[in-house]
What we know:
Elements: H1 3-30, E1 42-47, H2 51-59, E2 65-71, E3 75-77, H3 82-87, E4 96-98, E5 107-113, H4 126-133, E6 138-145, E7 151-156, E8 158-161, E9 165-167, H5 175-178, H6 185-202, H7 209-215, E10 217-221, H8 225-245, H9 247-250, E11 254-258, H10 270-277, E12 291-294, E13 298-300, H11 302-306, E14 319-321, E15 326-328, E16 334-340, E17 345-347, H12 356-374, E18 390-395, E19 398-402, E20 413-416, H13 417-430
Helix pairs in contact: 2-12, 6-7
Amino acid sequence: MPLGASLKSRACLKLSSQILRHTTREKLASRNFTSSAVRQKQRLLIVGSGWGGYGVLRKIDKKRWDVTIVSPNNYFNFTPLLASCAVGTLEFRCAIEPVRRYTPQVVAYQAWCDKIGKFSTENCSMRACLRLLLHSGKTSGPLADATTGTPFTLRWDKIVLAAGAYSQTFGVPGVKEHAHFLKDVKDARAIRVRILECFEQAMQPTLSDIDRRNLLNFCIVGGGPTGVEFASELHDLLHAEIAHHYPTLAKLAKITIYDVAPSILGSFDKTLVECAGKMFVKEQGEVPFGILVWSTGLAPNPLISSISEFKKDAKTNSVLTDEHLNLIRKDGTVDPDVWGIGDCAQIEDAILPATAQVANQKAQYLVKKLNKLAKDQDSPKPFKFENQGSLAYIGDWKAIYDNSGKEDKIISRESGRVAWLLWRSAYFTMTLSWR
């Protein structure tokens, strides 16, 4: 063999040896040597990305839990700011936080959950069912993919039901087809577009003043905090940007609130309700409108309605939990692997309002409980709600604040500009990021 070829061969052998040793070191470094078996993380499934579900997603120990979240939205709605987004005070991105902010530590599916519990062979192919049934653990399914509509299933060891609730229409004809709701950033976007459409249509020279007044009658059904805050934000819009760009039409615009209760904001102190009531127009009878925003309470989520093995509240049809937030079976026993929080669940014998404040506190409690559970630590303390008070914006940089249930507070009730500062500062401190 020529000398050059021999040197070249030795060089190649030396290089190959170096590569082999380097690869071996990488493999050895990547292996985990231990004297005991590695403990597999339990599967935690979170259904919903609202105040309850997203609250658990944020703080759950992702190193100790194999977390999966399923929600029709791939984001969290900061609902107190949706009214501001609907009139342009805030941009839409200010009121949402992405679910995938926590991937790849968490598996996220944008899908609807139709059923929780035992799997039915009627809802999937036999092959898929057999594959699932061969594994131990519970299943949730079928879940319909939000894009394709193809059902699929997920296995879980522990599950948090935070599916939320729908808007209550009371079966009134035409509401679903013609009214706007305000529960999602998509709703806020549609409302903003419709408001501008009303003014552009009212500008047409073929309309009479009566037609214009009818078109610029903005109706809100529901005198709770959501309806009142939207009406207040709309009031500010009419007296600012609209008055500047549509000076003649702004004088014809009117905001009307409808509610079955004798007054708006019934959960607030009477003196604060009187203060807020001075800002709005009351009207009765059949009236035409340009836009109708419907905010009259909550209806059960279809997923929760489909659950039959657990106890439910007779009035709201939400599932009932014990003081540790575990769902209660119909026989009175508690399921230690299933929790319910948010608008879809209520604590038995301790009914709380369906608010973001309650859902957020339940999520914080459950996160601590689950993180301790992952460490094999007991968490015997029951959930206890700490009322931080109620806030509502009423327009003209004024708000009302009610915490009269706790007289030991520095401020138990307030209205006007001071309450507005409390309102804004409270929401700014609750925001989840600089976004």
